[in-house]
Design goal:
By secondary structure, this protein is an alpha/beta fold. It has a single domain, classed as Response regulator (Rossmann fold). 33% of the residues lie in helices and 13% in strands. The chain has 4 helices and 4 strands. Strand 1, helix 1 and strand 2 form a beta-alpha-beta unit. Helix 1 crosses helix 4 and helix 2 packs across helix 4. It is globular. The relative contact order is 0.20. It comes from Deinococcus sonorensis.
């Protein structure tokens, strides 16, 4: 089984949504993938994350915000993906066997529900491509598979792109 860790700052929005979406993609593509998410700090899972994933039939109601140290075997992951710049900066050193990727998605917190849906949809495309690469035995994406456009209700700078 391949293990994937998705890291964010608070494990309350982007990483939680990415966990649910990656798990669903792995099930749909029949990829043996164990998916976890964590934050550099633990807070709570945001209601909007539960709402927009619920719209896709993914239930986050039993998810809790956690740190790396709350996970089973936290230093044994084949892949670690950071989904925000602060988590990338705080990401601990992993063994050389671990592939680390940084996909910095815009924080939907404080934005409209449409903004949350946009970020959810971007996460879905990115983690679908990630899981598809695993299924096909290709390297996982080094950067974005889609342009990270966000609704104009909250302007943002263009995120850094890996690769």
């Amino acid at each position: 089984m391949t293990r994937l860790l998705i890291l964010c700052t608070h494990n309350s929005a982007r990483s939680q949504m990415a966990e649910g979406l990656a798990r669903r993609a792995a099930q749909a593509l029949d990829v043996d993938l164990e998916v976890h998410s964590a934050g550099t700090e633990a807070t709570r899972v945001k209601e909007q994350a539960m709402t927009v994933l619920g719209e896709l039939g993914i239930d986050l109601s039993q998810h809790t915000s956690k740190t790396l140290f709350d996970l089973p075997d936290p230093w044994n992951f084949e892949y670690v993906v950071t989904v925000c710049d602060r988590a990338a900066e705080a990401c601990p050193a992993y063994p050389a066997k671990t592939t680390i990727r940084h996909y910095p998605f815009v924080d939907p917190s404080g934005g409209s529900l449409e903004r949350w849906r946009t970020v959810r949809d971007q996460l879905q495309v990115q983690f679908q491509a990630f899981v598809q690469a695993l299924k096909e035995g290709r390297p996982v994406p080094e950067g974005y598979e889609v342009s990270p456009a966000v609704p104009a209700d909250q302007p943002h700078p263009e995120p850094h792109r890996a690769g």
